[in-house]
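Re: the 117-residue chain
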Amino acid sequence: QSKYKENSSPKCWRECGEWMANHSHIFWSCKAIKGSWENSIKEMLNIFGISLGKNPPVILLEKIPEEINKNYSHLFLIIRVAMIKQMMNSCLVLTRRVALSLNFPFVSRLNRCDTTC
C-alpha cells in the first residue's frame, strides 16, 4: 500500500510487473527504462571519454564526476537533462494509457502531445 495516497497500489506504473515499486525502481531500476539508461551511459562515454558506470547519484542527482573538466561541467548537465527528458518522453505512450485508465484530469492535454512533447 502506498504511503502517499490511500487506496493506491505500490505496483510500478510502467507496467513492468514489479509489485513493490519505490522511487529508486521507478526512476532507475525498472526494466522498462533500463535499456535507455544503458544507452545513455554509453553515449556519455562517447562524448566525455569517461565511464559513468551505473551510478545513480551522478545521473539522477546532478553530481558531476570529478573526471569531467570544469569547462565541460555545464555541458554535462545539459546533456544529462536531455537524456532524462528523452527517456521520459519515450514513456509517454505508456503514461497516456495509464492516465486514461485512471481518468486523470490532464488526459486531454496528453492527447495533444503526440508529436510536440
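The first helix runs from residue 23 to 29.
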